[in-house]
Amino acid sequence: MKLKSGIGIKALLVFSGLLAICGLCMCDVVINEFELSPPDNGTVWVEIYNTGDAAVDLTGWMINIVDKPWEGPIPLKGSIEPKGFLAFDGQESWVATGNGTVFLYDATGVEVDKTSQQSDDSYSDFTYGRIPDGKKTDTRADFAFMMASKGRSNVR
Ligand SMILES: [Ca+2]
Ligand SMILES: [Ca+2]
After folding, report:
1. Residue 2 C-alpha to ligand 2 middle, in angstroms?
2. Mean pLDDT on 71-94
3. Exposure of 1 by Cβ count < 10 A (0-12 exposed, 13-18 middle, 19+ buried)?
């Protein structure tokens, strides 16, 4: 009897371990749009989109904008709803060069998404975004130069 329950607990631990691993594998959140060349000396920002069917806890997640040797880390918080959009601002003190690659890391530091390197010196209301939302073939073609839609669905 004791042995049985011991096995039961072990199985339960293995099972919850698998659940935890699945939780970490949620690669359903993508970088959906980013503004590295904002108009009027504005703040750079990055929009993420949850392509999945479950809310994702963003505690401990991080966006990093890299324009070597410069890096701009943006810690995330809260959670993102299924098919939801969220935009996170960089720091106002950052001087936008219009260049950069954007990375998204989950709470364990695993790279969840990465954009192509972009260069945009227009300092206009246009941004780079995935059209349609969440399009991910891991090529430059995933991102179109489009009218900014911060925190909303992307439209050409
Ligand atoms: Ca812009
Ligand atoms: Ca958008």
Report:
1. 56
2. 97
3. exposed
CA of 146 to the centre of ligand 2 (A): 9
**Burial zone of 143 (CB within 10 Å; 0-12 exposed, 13-18 middle, 19+ buried):** buried
> Yes or no: is domain 28-147 CATH 2.60.40.1260?
yes
| Domain-wise residue ranges, the chain | 28-147
* Amino acid (one-letter) located at 114: K
For 19-58, the pLDDT digits (tens) are 544 444 446 999 999 999 999 999 999 999 999 999 999 9
CA of 120 to the centre of ligand 1 (A): 7
Ion ligand 2 — residues with CB < 5 Å: 33, 47, 149, 154
Residue labelled with tokens 């890096």? 71
- Give the angle subtended at the CA of 128 by the CAs of 127 and 133, to the nearest 5°: 115
Rounded to whole angstroms, the Cα distance separating 25 from 19 reads 10
Cβ neighbours for 101, distance < 8 A, ≥ 6 positions apart: 65, 66, 67, 114, 115, 116, 117, 118
